[in-house]
Design goal:
The complex is a heterodimer. By secondary structure, chain A is of the alpha+beta class. Chain A is built from four helices and three strands. Chain A is elongated and about 50 Å long. Chain B is mainly α. The longest helix of chain B has 29 residues. The radius of gyration of chain B is 22 Å and the shape is elongated. The two termini of chain B are 30 Å apart. The relative contact order of chain B is 0.13. Classes of the chains: A alpha+beta, B mainly alpha. At the A-B interface, helix 1, strand 1, helix 2, helix 3 and helix 4 of A face helix 1 and strand 1 of B.
Chain lengths: 99, 210
C-alpha cells in the first residue's frame, strides 16, 4: 500500500481503467482482449504489460482459446480483484472525505 | 506488491492524485456500464413511446366496436412494423453491447429456447381458446402472461431481480387486461407496457450514475 492507503497496483491510470472496466461486467463474465483494447484505446503492447501485472497479483485471470487458426484471449476480474477495487474505492472515499 | 511505474501518466506533471483517481474511476465505470448495457435507457424510452403509439392507435380503432371484432386490416401493418422494428433494434443493440463478452450474462441456447417456446405456446394456447369460444382469448394482454412468467422464472434463476420484476410486471399487465374487456385490454397493454419500460429505463439510468 502507498502511504495514503491506495493499492499501488491499481493506483495507476491505465490499470485503474482496466480494473474499473472489468468490474462493470457481472461477476463471472469475461471480456475479450480486443474489446477491452478498443474500449480503453490502448496499444496491444501496453495492455499486455498492464494485464500481466494485474494477473501476477491475482486481480485478473485470462484464458486463451483457439478457434481454428484464430486465438482468442479473454480476461476477467477475479474475486480478489473485485475486493481490491472495493478496498481502493473505500480508501479513495476516506481520503477525499466521503466525496 | 509491484510498484513499477506505469507507462501512462495522469497529467502534465505526471502525478496521479486521489482526486484524479476518483474522477477517472467514476468516469470509466459509467462509460463501461453504458457500453455493456444491452438495454440502454434510450432504447427503452423509444420502445415505450412506440408501444404507446402502436397499441394506443389500435385501441382507438377498436374501442367503438360493438361487438368487438379485433384490429382492423389497417392496424395489422402498424403492429407488425412495431414488432419488427423493436426486434431488430433489440437484437442490434444487444449484439453491440455484448460483443466480446462471455459468461453467464449471455443467454444460453436453452434459455433462448425456453423464451421462444413460452411465446409460441402462449400464441398457440390463445388461438386454441379463441377457436373454443373463450372470451379472454381475444384479449391482446392474455398473450403476455406465459412469456412474462417464463421471463420472471429465468431472471429469478439468474438472481437478476430487476429482470424478475419486469417479468412479474408483464404478468400483472396480462391479468389486469383480462378485466378490461377486449378493446380496453389494448389500452391496458399500451399504458402498462409503456410505464413498465419507462420504469426500467429510469432504474437503469439511476444504476449507471450510481
Amino acid at each position: 500500500m502507498n502511504d495514503d492507503g491506495l493499492d499501488p497496483l491499481i493506483h495507476v491510470p491505465t490499470r485503474l481503467k482496466i480494473v474499473a472496466t472489468l468490474a462493470a461486467l457481472p461477476d463471472g463474465d469475461a471480456l475479450s482482449f480486443t474489446r477491452l483494447q478498443d474500449m480503453l484505446e490502448l496499444t496491444p503492447g501496453n495492455l499486455i504489460i498492464q494485464l500481466r501485472k494485474l494477473e501476477e497479483a491475482g486481480y485478473i485471470s485470462s484464458e486463451k482459446t483457439r478457434n481454428g487458426s484464430a486465438q482468442k484471449t479473454t480476461v476477467n476480474l477475479t474475486s480478489r480483484g473485485r475486493e481490491a477495487l472495493g478496498a481502493y474505492t473505500k480508501a479513495l472515499r476516506d481520503l477525499l472525505g466521503g466525496l | 506488491m509491484n510498484t513499477t511505474p506505469d507507462l501512462t501518466t495522469a497529467g502534465n506533471g505526471g502525478t496521479f492524485g486521489p482526486e484524479q483517481a476518483a474522477a477517472l474511476l467514476g468516469q470509466t465505470t459509467q462509460q463501461a456500464r453504458r457500453k455493456f448495457q444491452p438495454s440502454p435507457p434510450w432504447l427503452l424510452v423509444t420502445r415505450a413511446v412506440m408501444v404507446l403509439a402502436a397499441l394506443g392507435a389500435i385501441w382507438l380503432s377498436v374501442r367503438g366496436q360493438h361487438p368487438y371484432r379485433g384490429p382492423t386490416a389497417a392496424d395489422i401493418p402498424v403492429l407488425v412494423a412495431f414488432i419488427a422494428v423493436n426486434f431488430a433494434a433489440t437484437v442490434g443493440v444487444r449484439r453491440h453491447a455484448t460483443a466480446g463478452v462471455t459468461g453467464r450474462s449471455r443467454f444460453s441456447q436453452g434459455e433462448i429456447a425456453v423464451l421462444v417456446l413460452a411465446f409460441a405456446a402462449a400464441v398457440a394456447a390463445m388461438a386454441g381458446l379463441r377457436a373454443a369460444g373463450v372470451d379472454f382469448a381475444t384479449y391482446p394482454t392474455s398473450v403476455l402472461v406465459v412469456p412474462g412468467l417464463a421471463w420472471a422464472v429465468l431472471m429469478a434463476a439468474r438472481a437478476s431481480w430487476r429482470g424478475f420484476a419486469t417479468g412479474l410486471a408483464i404478468v400483472v399487465i396480462g391479468i389486469v387486461g383480462a378485466f378490461a374487456g377486449p378493446a380496453g385490454a389494448w389500452a391496458v397493454a399500451a399504458v402498462g407496457l409503456c410505464v413498465m419500460l419507462l420504469g426500467s429505463a429510469a432504474a437503469i439510468a439511476w444504476r449507471q450514475r450510481a
